[in-house]
Write a structure and sequence with these properties.
- With about 230 residues, the protein is mainly alpha-helical.
- The chain is about 45% helix and about 0% strand.
- It is elongated.
- The N and C termini lie far apart (about 110 Å).
């Protein structure tokens, strides 16, 4: 819900203020102070809106206003403050005693902008108008790695990629550990084979060749064993 209007606009005067209205407003504020701007027009006997009374007093009637044209020092101060604050006219007016924000804004748009343009300065950016945009070349851009480091990094990426693409063969086979010939012969001396130690014989004449009866493929063949 919006804020209600400060007064009935149908019963208020509009347009330029008369000298009589100015005198009434000045006399009331000198006695009672500014107070509430909503109730001030009725108390001062003015058929004006409270907002209109406030703007009239602040911009034209208050005694500390500075009259006359802006000085050269004020112009330079406004330019410096605008470069720092931008279009914040109320803050700029706070640094110039006796000047109002509305007065400074109007003076900027009518005089100072033209002065800056005549100097070749952009009023918005406060930089030269014909300043060329910043252009960068490849030589001006710093590279975080040297050519050798980039080359080594690419080689590492290629090797890691080849390792990821490697097809591992997981078909494992188990076989007895390989032993030197001398070790096998030393183990076979004075020892019987597995079938003989269990009382099993494959034939009447058994020649032991190791602990286990292995075929040529190195796998124990139990089918060749016969019960005694």
């Amino acid at each position: 819900m919006g804020r209600s209007p400060c007064c009935e606009k149908a019963h208020t005067n509009k347009g330029a203020w008369t000298k009589e209205e100015d005198d009434r407003l000045i006399a009331h504020i000198r006695v009672h102070g500014e107070g509430c701007w909503r109730s001030l027009p009725k108390a001062a006997g003015l058929l004006r809106c409270g907002k209109s009374c406030r703007l009239r007093w602040i911009n034209y009637l208050r005694p500390d206003l500075k009259r006359g044209n802006f000085t050269e020092e004020e112009d330079e101060l406004i330019i410096k403050l605008h470069s720092l604050l931008g279009n914040k006219w109320s803050l700029i007016a706070g640094r110039l005693p006796g000047r109002t924000d509305n007065e400074i804004k109007n003076y900027w748009n009518t005089h100072i902008r033209r002065k800056l343009l005549s100097r070749g300065i952009d009023p918005a950016t406060h930089r030269p108008v014909n300043q060329e945009p910043l252009s960068l070349s490849l030589s001006d851009i710093s590279v975080p790695y040297s050519k050798e480091q980039v080359k080594n990094q690419s080689q590492e990426e290629e090797s890691s990629k080849g390792f990821r693409d490697l097809d591992l063969n997981l078909n494992l086979c188990i076989s007895p550990p390989s032993q030197p010939q001398e070790t096998k012969e030393s183990l076979n001396r004075g020892k019987s084979c597995f079938s003989c130690s269990l009382g099993l014989q494959r034939s009447n004449e058994c020649s032991c060749n190791g602990f286990l009866e292995l075929n040529k493929t190195g796998v124990l063949d139990y089918r060749s064993l016969e019960m005694k």
